[in-house]
Task: structure prediction
Amino acid sequence: MKMPPTRGKKIIITKPPKKGPVPPRRAFLGQILLTVVVFFFFVSLYSSISDPAKNLEEISISNLAQEISLGTVSSIVVVGDRLEVTFTDGVEKISKKEAGTALSTTFKNYDVPTETLSKINIEVKNDRGFMYWFASLAPILLPIAFIVFFLWFLSRQVKGAGMQAFTFGQSKARLTSPNDKGQKVTFKDVAGCKEAKEELSEIVDFLKNPKKFLDIGARIPKGILLMGAPGTGKTLLARAVAGEAGVSFFSISGSEFVEMFVGVGASRVRDLFDLAKKAAPAIIFVDEIDAVGRVRGTGVGGGNDEREQTLNQILVELDGFEPNEKVIVMAATNRPDVLDPALLRPGRFDRRVTLDLPDRKDREEILLIHARKKPFGEDVNLALIAERTPGFSGADLYSLMNEAAILAARENRTKVSQFDLIRSIEKVMLGPERKSHILSKKEKELTAFHEAGHAVVASVLPYADPVHKISIISRGRVAGYVLKLPLEDRKLQSKKEFLDDIAVALGGYVVEKTIFKDLTTGPSNDLQVSTALARDMVTKYGMSDKIGSLALETSGGKPLFGTGVGGKEYSEKVGAMIDDEVSKIMSEAMKKTEKIIRDHRDVLDAIAARLMEVETIEQKEFEEILIAHGITPKKKQDIEHQQ
Ligand code: ADP
Ligand code: ZN
Ligand code: MG
Result:
């Protein structure tokens, strides 16, 4: 039972996997197996070398002496200690003599008559060739070879397993080379962001043609900081600059500098800058720089030396650039408020480029870019989709397009239709529908009245956004929702709009309290949202008469590591005054909402009844109900914008 959450989720873009994703367990088993196989191979090799005449029968030297006395032996070949005996009937056998004793002496000791012995053809082969040495050394060498192999194998495996024992100081930057046509991104792929592109085209110009700038003695900025909400295209734009200029692009994420080992971050920074200087002209892109670039030295939670060293090294490298080094550092962050001021000093990241959420026209252009490779039905009207998606970032629009294509494919259609796109808007905003989440009759009634409450208040109050859709089909984590869309994009919000928004958020709560005379946990989020809004009005926007025009908190919220724990910049007395003002705003809004619900009970009942019946009411039907009860739906010209 929430209002649609505020936009701006972080979209995670998967990076290409770093090589070799074999599951470690399977890889390990495989290697054990391989080792065993290699072991057996060596064992059999060894035995076949050391004993080549294995299949010949062996007789003892005493038996041989007997055979000789009997005269059945025709010849003996002596190879070292080995005797290859051939009998008169052609049978071959082998035997061994005592080492170091002459064969004749041996036989004499066995009382073999000398004349019998002289009849036998005895041949001594001087077997000192390769095979001899190999056979005699193999028992020593093979185990050693095996152990060496095994060690080599292990070390290779350890490295492969990601320990990278010898390379952890190297930067892990991904390099996109200018010749890589598949990955090339240019300004054409980035819609909107007109000012940002203009600002950056100067950088492109310099990278393409540095001489022109250097000759005239111009100092080119070394560091450019891209700031903007998640998904506004910071990473994309950085890549587009490299693509436009046709230079190498080294990209690394801030968090990749920091690892278990102290000092790794700093050495990675050094390595990265060295690499880039060698490849100049080049762009180094540090994504999510707030991971290393937070304000230093506040020591909350023990501080992080590693992070600080990394940041220091980045600063050192930035300062160490010669003006004619054609390397430009770009960085992106969505939390510029937490960055260390040292990063923003002149000569470092002194160029700052802000990327805003796209407005209606830009949204249409972004949709067009992502529509390039998709087949669309005739009914598709991207302008309408752009109109319906205020607050969407480029990344949201990208995933909207993707969801629509998936929907069409799932329903076995070859073209994406307008209906697919419209359904995807809600999916991207609120998560998928949960049709299986069945509400009990009582819950359904309560949810219907709750959402109808929001809708009625939104329709009656002049500065609230008009209702586009009401639904009690649960989606993501919400049980039901009212989709309100502003009539036009707004950059500024007025006090009147804030007050009406708070009243609308309270609509559900008031209905539960006054009609059901009981409260559920449902509106807790509504209360949080509206209270936070009221608080912001007082502390950030100077919209309370009593406190006046003091901005007591910065727009980024309290920097966690900035001003120490709590980060309060006002006294207890002012704090109490703020609380008073917030509760005054809330109770006034509550009164306003209660009156609306009382006065428009008939519309509320009608909407709730219809909701229970059909579960979802679209704008057109909703307006018909309003008109039937004497409320004029809002049209564009009705809203007079005051800033
Ligand atoms: P950020 O780095 O600001 O969080 P990204 O640059 O990663 O956002 O954007 C994510 C995706 O959203 C991009 O890959 C692109 O597909 C899409 N996108 C964002 N902004 C734009 C834009 N202005 N034009 C076209 N596509 C965009
Ligand atoms: Zn609600
Ligand atoms: Mg990014």
